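Whiteboard transcription, Tuesday session. T.W. wrote the C-alpha cells on the left side:
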C-alpha cells in the first residue's frame, strides 16, 4: 500500500522539483527573469485582445437618415384656446416643418389629421401659457411631438413659426 502512495506522489514530486529548479534559475539569471515576465505580459495581452475582439459586434448598423432636410409649410390656420372667464381667445399660426425629403409624401397624405391634432392640442392651451418666448418654445416642442405622434415616428426635426398671433 505504501508503494501505491509513493508511486502516485512521485509524479507530483517530480513536477514540484522541476518548478523549484525553474524558480532557482529565474532567481539566478536576471535576463531569464525578464524574459519570463515578458512572456507572461505578452500572454495576458494576447488573451485580453482575444476577449475584446471576440466581444465586438461586427454587424453593420444601418441608419436611415431619409435624405436631406427640407422645409415643408403647413397652411395658416386659426384655433380657439381654452376659454377663461367667459372669454374665448384665439391663436393664428403659420408653421413650417423641417423634415427629411423622403417623408414629405407622408406629411401630405396625413395633413388633415396633423392639422386636426394641432387644433385639438391648442384647444387645451390657456392664453397665458403661450405668452412670451418660453410659452412659444414650449408650444413649438409640444407641436413637434404631436405631429410626430400622428406620423408614427420622429420625422419632424424642427417646428418653426412663421406667423404666431395671440388674440
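and on the right, the sequence the group agreed on:
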Amino acid at each position: 500500500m505504501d508503494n501505491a502512495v509513493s508511486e502516485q506522489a512521485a509524479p507530483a514530486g517530480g513536477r514540484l522539483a522541476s518548478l523549484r529548479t525553474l524558480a532557482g534559475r529565474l532567481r539566478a539569471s536576471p535576463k531569464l527573469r525578464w524574459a519570463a515576465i515578458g512572456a507572461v505580459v505578452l500572454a495576458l495581452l494576447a488573451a485580453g485582445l482575444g476577449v475584446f475582439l471576440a466581444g465586438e459586434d461586427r454587424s453593420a448598423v444601418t441608419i436611415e437618415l431619409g435624405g436631406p432636410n427640407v422645409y415643408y409649410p403647413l397652411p395658416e390656420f386659426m384655433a380657439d384656446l381654452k376659454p377663461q372667464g367667459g372669454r374665448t381667445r384665439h391663436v393664428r399660426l403659420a408653421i413650417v416643418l423641417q423634415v427629411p425629403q423622403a417623408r414629405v409624401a407622408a406629411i401630405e397624405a396625413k395633413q388633415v389629421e396633423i392639422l386636426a391634432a394641432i387644433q385639438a392640442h391648442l384647444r387645451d392651451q390657456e392664453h397665458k401659457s403661450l405668452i412670451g418666448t418660453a410659452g412659444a418654445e414650449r408650444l413649438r416642442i409640444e407641436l413637434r411631438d404631436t405631429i410626430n405622434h400622428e406620423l408614427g415616428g420622429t420625422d419632424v426635426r424642427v417646428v418653426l413659426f412663421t406667423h404666431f398671433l395671440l388674440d
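Someone added at the bottom: The chain has two domains: 2-55, 69-166.
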